[in-house]
């Protein structure tokens, strides 16, 4: 077995061309072609179907690529682990997260990790789109809510709750509700696209439903926070990310104890990929930090 031939074949498939693979490996296109041909001759099958316009995998090629790519990745990771100083994490961690991720303490958690491990580079893409972790080369995806069945592994980092918040200016002008029922008489800042909604809330075992209305609504919590701070009304906002706004007087948590426990917060990662030690360390850090944020959010509310 010639691992170099296998590596060249894998790079050709990833680049979808001999030229692209040659650039990645730093060798001429002719050398790439000879390696792939030698691999096909040794295996006795055609792995790639070549035309003047495109390159595609044969059935045997698909099988070989799937198995060989995983095996080569495992070998590379084994080498990285051996070479990596356990006390000095290195490398790049790519994370995808919802757009609102950047508006909360999560950014601080990443900054803390970077300070502790200065040789680790963290790249975060904030997006609402569905991301293909493996295909796009991401190590982690941060998600909230019920998770769809998938080939991803999930580590729960914490639970997110929604609590009631308003600005001091709004409450001074309109008064502070003393019970959930009074929310119907207030202008509310609503998540989604409907200006009339029913909020289902609980306080321990006690549950209520309240019909609310508002002139402002949005499908991102960052916009709801801005509108609420500006005095647009009362909003159900995540306790994650708002403890500082409560501390500095921008927001007041009204009707303490009432809210919604809406979702778990999870870190997803490919089940088939061995987690590098830097990614495992970040997962542990986020899990500890998220739990601490939730506790702080409850004590300040």
Outline of the structure:
This protein has 301 residues and is of the alpha/beta class. The chain has 10 helices and 12 strands. Helix 1 packs across helix 2 and helix 1 crosses helix 4.
Describe what this molecule looks like in 3D:
With 301 residues, the chain is of the alpha/beta class. The chain folds into two domains: 3-83, Orthogonal Bundle (Arc Repressor Mutant, subunit A), CATH 1.10.10; 89-301, D-Maltodextrin-Binding Protein, domain 2. It is 40% helix and 28% strand. It has ten helices and twelve strands. The protein has helices at residues 3-15, 18-25, 29-43, 59-83, 106-116, 133-136, 168-174, 221-229, 243-247, 277-300; strands spanning 48-50, 55-57, 91-97, 120-126, 140-144, 152-166, 187-191, 196-203, 206-218, 234-238, 252-253, 259-270. The strands form two sheets. Strands 3, 4, 5, 6, 7, 8, 9, 10, 11 and 12 form a ten-stranded mixed beta sheet that branches. Strands 1-2 form a two-stranded antiparallel sheet. Strand 8 and strand 9 (206-218) form a beta hairpin. The protein is elongated. The N and C termini lie far apart (63 Å). Mean pLDDT is 84; it is low at 294-301.
């Amino acid at each position: 077995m010639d691992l170099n031939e296998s590596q060249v074949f894998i790079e050709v498939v990833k680049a979808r061309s001999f030229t692209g693979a040659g650039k990645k490996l730093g060798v001429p296109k002719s050398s790439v072609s000879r390696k792939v041909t030698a691999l096909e001759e040794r295996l006795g099958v055609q792995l790639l179907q070549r035309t003047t316009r495109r390159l595609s995998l044969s059935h045997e090629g698909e099988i070989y690529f799937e198995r060989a790519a995983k095996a080569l990745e495992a070998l590379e990771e084994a080498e990285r682990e051996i070479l990596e100083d356990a006390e000095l994490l290195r490398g790049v961690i790519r994370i995808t997260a919802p757009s609102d991720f950047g508006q909360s303490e999560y950014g601080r958690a990443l900054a803390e990790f970077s300070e502790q491990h200065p040789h680790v580079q963290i790249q975060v893409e904030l997006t609402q789109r569905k991301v293909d972790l493996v295909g796009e080369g991401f190590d982690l995806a941060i998600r909230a809510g019920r998770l769809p069945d998938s080939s991803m592994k999930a580590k729960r980092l914490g639970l997110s709750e929604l609590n009631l918040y308003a600005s001091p200016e709004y409450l001074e002008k309109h008064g502070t509700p003393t019970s959930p029922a009074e929310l119907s008489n207030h202008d509310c800042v609503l998540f989604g696209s409907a200006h009339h909604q029913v909020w289902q809330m609980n306080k321990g075992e006690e549950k209520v439903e309240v019909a609310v209305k508002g002139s402002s609504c949005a499908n991102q919590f960052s916009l709801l926070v801005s509108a609420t701070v500006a005095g647009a009304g009362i909003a159900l906002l995540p306790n994650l990310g708002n403890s500082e706004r409560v501390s500095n007087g921008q927001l007041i948590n009204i009707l303490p104890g009432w809210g919604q426990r809406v979702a778990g917060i999870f870190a997803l990662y490919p089940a088939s990929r061995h987690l590098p030690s830097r990614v495992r360390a970040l997962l542990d850090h986020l899990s500890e930090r998220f739990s601490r944020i939730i506790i702080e959010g409850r004590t300040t509310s």
